[in-house]
Amino acid sequence: MKTVSIKTVATEAGVSIATVSNVINRPAVVSVATRDRVQAVIDALGYVPNSAARHLSSGRSTAVGLVLFGVRNPYFADIARGAEDTLQRAGHLSVLCSTDLDTRREEDYLDQLAHQGIRNLIITPVQVSEPWLDRLKERGFTFVLIHNWADHPEICSVAVDDVLGGEQAATHLLARGHQAITFVTGPMSMRSPRDRYEGCLRAILRSGRTREDLQVIEVDDFTIEQGRRAGERLLAATRPGTAVFCANDLLALGVVQAAFRAGRRVPEDLAIIGFDDIESVNTTAVPLTTVRVEGYQLGRAAAQMLLDEQRDPEGHTHRRQVFSLRLIERSST
After folding, report:
1. Of 190, 169, 181, nearest to 210 (Cα)?
2. Are both 12 and 117 inside the same structural domain?
3. Residue 254 DSSP one-character state
4. What is the pLDDT of residues 241-284, one digit of tens each?
């Protein structure tokens, strides 16, 4: 079959090649009537845009970089799936990059993406700062952040209400008679665990207790292995307490494992709450109470924001979408 050229489409539609290109890449700048006429010719002729040629001529790929903390965590895998499904339907390739909370690794990925002409990003930044944002803009990146900062209204972002999630978790434990709570988390230098801690503290103070009734065990990462280590530290304490709120489900699963190894019962000796509601927590020996986050929906929303800006960069309005949370009660509490 002979390949249909963009010139043939332009001739058949009675427009310039530039207009056909705009219909494909910037439809918002073309009148509805012209856009419909050109699209009808594209459909009739079976024209397929040559993305490689567009990349070579513009120096900018239509692919999108998904730069996420780590897809070994099912929560981020859900975000990636939501974004990828939305982008694929719009004809965009997704390039997945896992930073593992390493700023140098993140920077290296950004350099590689820019070198490949990929300047469309959906990113969970290890750290957000004005200089970091300025560098992204200077490189020509169009990006959507998945984070929880409201300090940058000039940038599109999706987030969850981490403070509310922490408050829900602590309120649930306090209502069951627990007098003190241990918060198990990865690096507190990150905004999300700090917000979850603040929400937990808010509930404790509101109940008439003090800051001393909220202890923190901080580990190096948000993994099951680090959760086991945190659980061992907790259970080795003179007074280990009876309730644990973990910054994510993987940490919580690790604490559950540590409790079982130490001969403790969950929830009779130790009540445990996670965060995210990944698929596996409902199929463990003790199904996990957790705060549900719709990772797939976050990924979809982030991808749609990016597509909206690509289609109409001049008329696009940056926005921040915050998703609600819901505590799911199961056997671990």
Report:
1. 181
2. no
3. H
4. 999 999 999 999 999 999 999 999 999 999 999 999 999 999 89
